Amino acid sequence: MTDLGSDFNVLTDHCYPPLPERPKLDNTALKSAFESLRRREEEAGRKFTFETFSEEVGINERVLRRARARGIPLPRHQVLRMAERLGCAPGSIVIFEDSRNPAETARLKAQNERDRKDMVAWPVPLREIASWTEFVEHLKMVESTRPTWGDDVLSLAAAPAIDAFKAALHYSSQVVKDNPAMAAAALKDAAADLQALDLHVLAGRYLARRDCDYGTVGLVYVLEVWIRREVEDLAHVVDRSNEPMWTSEEENQYSDDTDMNDGWLAWEGKRRLFLWGGDDAE
User: Fold this and answer.
1) 8 Å CB contact between 205 and 267
2) CA dist 88 to 69, 71, 82, 83, 119, Å?
3) CB of 135 closer than 8 Å to CB of 144
4) Which of 93, 118, 108 lies closest to 23 in space, CA to CA?
5) What are 76-125's pLDDT values in tens digits?
6) Per residue in 74-85, pLDDT tens?
7) What angle do CA 52, 16, 85 make, to 5 degrees?
């Protein structure tokens, strides 16, 4: 498919600039090309809908609609496949920087500004861990985590307890899937030693995105653990400016799966993930 798509781009798209790796769709042009295809299909006696088109090109319908509405980029090979089915040049259904109309440019600029603002200061409230049994269930979801602390909590008296908790967290991460009770007990005892020094273990969660093989993006469950003097920090934020600026393959694949989406939102404790539309709130 890659070779075919490349040849198709050369033969029929010569009047357009080269497609970027992740083009953004021109909604007006795509709608026009789709209507032409729909008329051709109906003239041939076949019913043709946007859902049918999405299935034929192998893109989830909701993903494609979101890409059209919000200017979310799609992988180049998907755009090539769409253009091939539509019977048009790939460059004719994507937006190039110099061809956007003023209204579309303003809308995308506002969207990008909001996304960048979110990216550098994504809210991850920290709260004291109330249940170590529940905490180790969260620990099962993450690849790795380690505690963080600042100079304000360090002292000769506190250092052994901090090191002991770090060791307990490492141990618990190794055994949690087979021995969750042992993991929880080790952490509970280590946290009690910190609490005797008026130090508290706080945690917060969010879903990060990272680059994967073949230019794809994946979701990563992140569990932040802090040793603090205070019992909560609801204003805590995370700088995510090193992450990809588009949604992951999982989000695209399971965009219609209510249970999966609800699980992601429950992990973050928000109404949306980064790059989703709508207001975020706990």
Assistant:
1) yes
2) 21, 20, 9, 5, 36
3) no
4) 93
5) 899 999 999 998 888 888 887 655 567 766 776 777 788 888 888 999 99
6) 888 999 999 999
7) 15
Give the Cα separation of 282 and 280 in Å (integer). 7
Distances (CA, A) of 8 to 11, 241, 244: 5, 35, 28
Tell me the whole-structure pTM to 2 decimals: 0.67
Please, which residues have CB within 8 angstroms of residue 253's CB and are 6 or more apart in sequence?
A: 60
**Residue whose token pair is 């901090």:** 162
227: buried, middle or exposed (CB in 10 Å: 19+, 13-18, 0-12)?
A: buried
The residue to which tokens 């965009």 are assigned: 255
Indicate where the chain has its CATH 1.10.260.40 domain(s).
2-100
CATH topology of domain 2-100: 434 Repressor (Amino-terminal Domain) (1.10.260)
Distances (CA, A) of 180 to 130, 161, 248: 16, 22, 30
